[in-house]
């Protein structure tokens, strides 16, 4: 199976499944709930989209997902993915940043944390057991590819409960990592 990705806009072809994530879908992930509610009264903003392709054969089950995060911020906090840990504790992932700039946050949710600066061309291996979230700190689209095993599973609940150790805010127009207590 061969797919084509347009690196300028993150459009994948063919693409059997597109999942949009609106502000209402990741409402609880942003710190400033008052600002979230104010924005939601006006518009349910599209924060990012996932374009997904499962490679199924009789003996293997890889999947590829292209994520397009639109630029912007909510209460000073940059647009980001919901973030998750894989349900299976033996499942890693590879992320490849195709376009844009930002950070990949990696967090065990048990005290260990890393923020990897990202730009087009950056490839990061996400070890099993590490929660992962991508932040778009740029003024343009951020596009990245994730490759993982179909059985990995996505645990969003643990991230909603524990939260990442740092949030990324725009401070004087520049990204700043702010530790969460
Ligand atoms: O499998 C992955 O890690 C990615 O394809 C993500 O699912 C994608 O980037 C969207 O992020 P999230 O699943 O946290 O909403
Ligand atoms: Ni993942």
From TrEMBL:
This is glucose-6-phosphate isomerase. GO terms for molecular function: glucose-6-phosphate isomerase activity; metal ion binding. Gene3D superfamilies: Jelly Rolls. PANTHER family: CUPIN TYPE-2 DOMAIN-CONTAINING PROTEIN, OXALATE-BINDING PROTEIN. It catalyses: alpha-D-glucose 6-phosphate = beta-D-fructose 6-phosphate. Residues 23-174 form the Glucose-6-phosphate isomerase prokaryote domain. GO terms for cellular component: cytoplasm. One of its GO terms (biological process) is glycolytic process. It comes from Thermanaerothrix daxensis. SUPFAM superfamilies: RmlC-like cupins. Belongs to the archaeal-type GPI family. The keyword Ribosomal protein does not apply. Keywords: Gluconeogenesis, Glycolysis, Metal-binding. Pathway: Carbohydrate degradation; glycolysis; D-glyceraldehyde 3-phosphate and glycerone phosphate from D-glucose: step 2/4.
């Amino acid at each position: 199976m061969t797919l084509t990705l347009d690196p300028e806009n993150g459009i994948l072809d063919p693409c059997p499944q597109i999942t949009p994530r609106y502000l209402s879908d990741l409402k609880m992930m942003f710190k400033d709930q008052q600002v979230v509610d104010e924005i939601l009264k006006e518009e349910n903003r599209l924060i990012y989209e996932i374009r997904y392709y499962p490679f199924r054969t009789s003996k293997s089950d890889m999947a590829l997902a292209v994520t397009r995060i639109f630029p912007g911020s909510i209460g000073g906090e940059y647009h980001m993915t919901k973030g998750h840990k894989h349900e299976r504790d033996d499942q890693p992932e590879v992320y490849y940043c195709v376009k844009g700039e930002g950070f990949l946050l990696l967090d065990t949710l048990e005290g260990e944390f890393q923020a990897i600066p990202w730009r087009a061309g950056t490839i990061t291996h996400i070890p099993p057991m590490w929660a992962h979230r991508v932040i778009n700190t740029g003024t343009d689209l951020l596009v990245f590819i994730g490759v993982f095993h179909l059985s990995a599973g996505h645990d969003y609940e643990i991230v909603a409960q524990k939260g990442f150790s740092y949030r990324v805010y725009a401070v004087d127009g520049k990204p700043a990592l702010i530790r969460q207590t």
